Amino acid sequence: MLQQQLQTMLALQDDINTLVNENWRGQNFPWYRAIWVESAELLDHYGWKWWKKQDPEMEQVKLELVDIWHFGLSLELQQGSPDAVAAKMEQQLAGEQPAAGNFRENLEAFTLNTLSSKQFDLVGFAQLMTDCELPFEDLYRRYVGKNVLNRFRQDHGYKEGTYQKLWFGKEDNEHLAEIAESLDSTAENFSNQLYSALKTRYTGSQKDLA
């Protein structure tokens, strides 16, 4: 199950990267730098200022971790095909059962490893997931949902400025969350089901506007 879900996510990431730039692997984009910047944003949501009261915004923390995962998958894909990379990632994760620790310190270690190696610290990321109680199933569901929505927007005029984010009085990400809740995220074609259901709703909303 884990390897299948990793393969699915890696294939989706490969597809969206290719949609943006057909030769994305050859460009050697600094994905590690994007992880570094996202990590700083994540820490702001978690809270680090000792001179004022701050409560962790855990939903935002999890969303930032999903964004980091996008960039991490892109770094991993520089090493090979989705299938080969998924097998390697599964091996790395299989032996990891980290106990929850100090999130801020673990985030700093993860960021330091990322900057020093310019690679994705998968084990460090798994530690952060444990620290903020983000199970892999939840990461998978959130990642696939965001990836599908990004692809859907691109396919329906996002770049050209013709895409409508508001349908039936709600933003597209709200529709996505509703649809995802109604589907089985363990299904092999989960991403295709999500995309089809989004398209059906969006098409219906555009007909109403006509």
Automatic annotation (TrEMBL):
<dbReference type="Pfam" id="PF08761">
    <property type="entry name" value="dUTPase_2"/>
</dbReference>
<keyword id="KW-0378">Hydrolase</keyword>
<dbReference type="InterPro" id="IPR014871">
    <property type="entry name" value="dUTPase/dCTP_pyrophosphatase"/>
</dbReference>
<protein>
    <submittedName>
        <fullName>dUTP diphosphatase</fullName>
        <ecNumber>3.6.1.23</ecNumber>
    </submittedName>
</protein>
<dbReference type="GO" id="GO:0004170">
    <property type="term" value="F:dUTP diphosphatase activity"/>
</dbReference>
